[in-house]
Amino acid sequence: MSIELISNPGRATRGVLAFTGRPDAGRLSRALFEELTHLTEYQPVARWDLDGYWTVEGVRPRVEVRHGQIQRLVWPQYEFFSYQANPEERVLLGRGPEPGTRWRDFTQVLLNQLTQWSCRKVILVGSRFDQIFHDEIRLSAVVQDVRGYNLARHWHCQALEYQGPTSIHAAIMEGAAERNISTISLWAHLPFYLKDAQELVIHRLLEIIADFTQQQWRLGHLLGRWREKLSHIEELLEQEPDLLEQVKKLQTDAGDRVADATRGENIIRIDEFLKRKGDPIADE
């Protein structure tokens, strides 16, 4: 299906895209976009009916039934928004289900549209559950080139070392590289024992997006909400002794992970990878 335009985003050279489903542990993208709504008052730009790109194993249409009658059937779609970053430029936002099939075709259509909107720099935001402590911030990144490597290091992201099944992020990054669209895939690691993404991580991601889009936002309310939630989490853990024991170990190990990141051990591996590819890394 074609992309239905709602408004003209104008010159939107930067974009932040997220996908629901498997790359969206803890429903992080929903919480992130809810905050962006309050911070930016973004406006709808386009709707993309994903007919032909989804499967029932990954996503299903949503139905609204009242008094036994179907009132509305909403088919899976990807939505684009934009907000004014400065008098001359808008920032593009996108959120919708990860396609369940035809990734190559989906990627080409997406990149064609981004090119039409003059979008040349993109952050892909994803999340995954991990063995980490709930008061710990851990972000990892997959990059295309030296510029992305330096940005990831600037944002204190760990280099991701992985081999196996992937998300739509990898397909988009591969296609974007061929079009010289600078793309970084950011992954927030969330504690496996919490249902939703914590405000602490949302706060950090918004700091990164603000830096990426050259904005200044007041985000202190997120830290306030997180402090309020901490006592509730601790009360719940006290009721689960076995889980509490695991969490205490994660808390102890968190210090070692911070030390490793400070020493740059994770960054060295991606440094060596880029050198093998023939990309010199400039010393800072």
Would you mind describing this structure in some detail?
The protein is 41% helix and 26% strand. It has helices at 28-40, 103-116, 146-154, 168-178, 199-213, 220-238, 241-263, 265-276, and strands at 3-5, 14-20, 43-49, 62-66, 69-74, 77-86, 89-97, 121-130, 139-142, 158-159, 182-191. By secondary structure, the protein is α/β, with parallel strands linked by helices. The strands form 2 sheets. Strands 1-3-6-7-2-8-11-9-10 form a 9-stranded mixed beta sheet, with helices on both faces. Helix 2 (103-116) crosses helix 4 (168-178) and helix 5 (199-213) packs antiparallel against helix 6. The radius of gyration is 20 Å and the shape is globular. It has 8 helices and 11 strands. The longest helix is centred in the C-terminal third of the chain and has 23 residues, at 241-263. Residues 261-284 have low confidence and may be disordered. The relative contact order is 0.15. The chain has one domain (3-276): Rossmann fold, CATH 3.40.50.
Compact summary:
This protein is of the alpha/beta class and 284 residues long. The chain is built from 8 helices and 11 strands.
